């Protein structure tokens, strides 16, 4: 099975479907991860550390057992 997981922000995929992805990883399914924005602003419009959020996402995917095909588009805003 091939799976493409798309998240708007870093951490969306991990929180929203981490357990499901972990299940598919253990079954050996082909998974690709696409994260659209850099997460540079929080919900209040304040700037955050996008590099830190990226590293947190990579660590979370590693904990889930995945580290292969992860793409960050690094868009600053989606309207």
UniProtKB/TrEMBL annotation:
Q: Name one Pfam family in it.
A: PIG-L
InterPro entries cross-referenced by the UniProt entry: GlcNAc_PI_deacetylase-related (IPR003737), LmbE-like_dom_sf (IPR024078)
- Record protein name field: PIG-L family deacetylase
* Species this chain originates from: marine sediment metagenome
What high-level taxonomic lineage is stated for the organism? unclassified sequences, metagenomes, ecological metagenomes
């Amino acid at each position: 099975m091939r799976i493409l997981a798309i998240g708007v922000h870093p951490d969306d995929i991990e929180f929203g479907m981490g357990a499901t992805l972990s299940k598919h990883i253990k079954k050996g399914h082909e998974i690709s991860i696409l994260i659209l924005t850099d997460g540079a602003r929080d919900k209040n419009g304040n700037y955050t550390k996008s590099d830190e959020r990226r590293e947190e996402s990579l660590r979370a995917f590693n904990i889930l057992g995945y580290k292969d095909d992860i793409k960050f588009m690094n868009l600053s805003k989606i309207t």
